[in-house]
Specification:
This protein is mainly α. It has 3 helices and 2 strands; from the N terminus they run H-H-E-H-E.
Length: 133
């Protein structure tokens, strides 16, 4: 004998299941929008003119092997004929890896980073004169 099927109960379960799936999809879209907004803000900060070079880091979380003195950076730039300039002069696209690392640092240190500088060959910078420093 075939058991009786309660169509109303099946419809109710079906609706609940799909409502839950739709909520998950909406949550994912919201998360993606927020991440996209963060990336847009980072790109704007890197590309924009910003005199604020003070960043508030949690020093206990910093990887000291990745911190370099300004004189070390200048020496390397001179030896390899590179420029170390404000990021607003950089005309190439900021690599996704850099944006990801910035997002990670901002999350770990609960701060918004500003005052970026970039090391690159002079041809990757927008300079008024090719002999500009």
């Amino acid at each position: 004998m075939i058991p009786r099927t309660n169509i109303e109960e099946i419809l109710h379960r079906f609706r609940e299941q799909h409502a839950h799936e739709e909520q998950i999809i909406q949550d994912v879209y919201q998360l993606l929008r927020e991440e996209g907004d963060k990336e847009d803000r980072i790109v704007a900060n890197v590309s924009g003119k910003n005199k604020d070079s003070q960043n508030d880091f949690k020093f206990d979380l910093l990887e000291t092997d990745k911190i370099y003195h300004i004189e070390q950076i200048k020496a390397i730039c001179i030896n390899y004929r590179l420029r170390f300039l404000d990021s607003r002069y950089f005309k190439a696209e900021i690599p996704q890896e850099a944006i990801s690392k910035i997002k990670k640092l901002e999350k770990e240190h609960d701060t918004e980073l500003k005052g970026y500088k970039i090391i690159a060959p002079s041809k990757l910078f927008k300079l008024e004169d090719k002999d500009d420093p």
